[in-house]
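User: Here's a structure from my thesis project, written as structure tokens. My advisor, Dr. K., wants to see whether a designed sequence matches the one we expressed. Can you design one independently, without my sequence as a hint?
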């Protein structure tokens, strides 16, 4: 007996910043009138509704926190084969440009998804510690990556935030050694899931025409903690922020 036809699909794509060789399968579902909704990202050329976090604005807010604390040499590590990473880098870069600062490739590292990452649950990003420590702050793609970076820094005797202020996204693994907690973006994961689920139900019941043509952007919140230290450029001393 053939499997029952699915009523709808909610998808979190992988490598969404790259051309997808399997996009025809999604197109086939859409031609059959099966609702397809993407969360966190979408594929170019595929006209489906999507629900996204406000990654650009969230990244701008995080970067601005560092600028407001006196940091002008701000490094960044971002995933570049998914839309979230691209949007987070965009917010970081735009904020530096607006502040009249250079976006310096020597202090930016990009990485891709790979098989080992899924197996080991680890990014293993290659970056230059010497170049990183020429900066006073870091915007990190997410908390899973930040844990890896923090482990590397700790082994070298580099302290957060005394030697390097760090901000990151998703607000899951936030506590470092001692009393240091990460400033992070609280991902609206529950609300985002509810909206996507309600939308796919509406499309099943009322037809795909009820879906909005533009992405639904979910606002996020910044959870400010003590992983930022204020940098006074005048006398080159650090003060708690």
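Assistant: Designed independently from the structure alone:
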């Amino acid at each position: 007996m053939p499997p029952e036809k699915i009523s709808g699909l909610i998808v979190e794509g992988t490598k969404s910043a790259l051309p997808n060789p399997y996009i025809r399968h999604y197109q086939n579902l859409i031609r059959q009138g099966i609702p397809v909704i993407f969360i966190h990202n979408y594929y170019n050329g595929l006209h489906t509704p999507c629900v996204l976090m406000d990654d650009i604005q969230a990244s701008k807010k995080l970067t601005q926190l560092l600028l407001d604390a006196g940091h002008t040499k701000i490094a960044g590590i971002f995933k570049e084969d998914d839309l979230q990473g691209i949007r987070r880098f965009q917010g970081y870069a735009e904020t530096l440009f607006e502040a009249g600062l250079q976006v310096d490739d020597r202090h930016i590292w990009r990485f891709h998804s790979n098989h080992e990452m899924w197996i080991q649950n680890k990014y293993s990003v290659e970056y230059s510690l010497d170049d990183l420590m020429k900066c006073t702050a870091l915007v990190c793609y997410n908390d899973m990556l930040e844990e890896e970076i923090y482990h590397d820094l700790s082994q070298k005797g580099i302290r957060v935030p005394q030697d390097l202020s760090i901000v990151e996204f998703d607000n899951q693994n936030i506590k470092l050694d001692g009393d240091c907690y990460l400033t992070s973006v609280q991902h609206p994961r529950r609300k985002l899931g509810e909206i996507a689920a309600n939308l796919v139900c509406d499309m099943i019941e009322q037809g795909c025409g009820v879906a909005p043509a533009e992405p639904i952007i979910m606002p996020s919140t910044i959870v400010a903690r003590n992983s930022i230290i204020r940098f006074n450029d005048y006398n080159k001393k650090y003060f708690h922020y």
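When you compare it with your expressed construct, this may help: Residues 233-241 have pLDDT under 50 and may be disordered.
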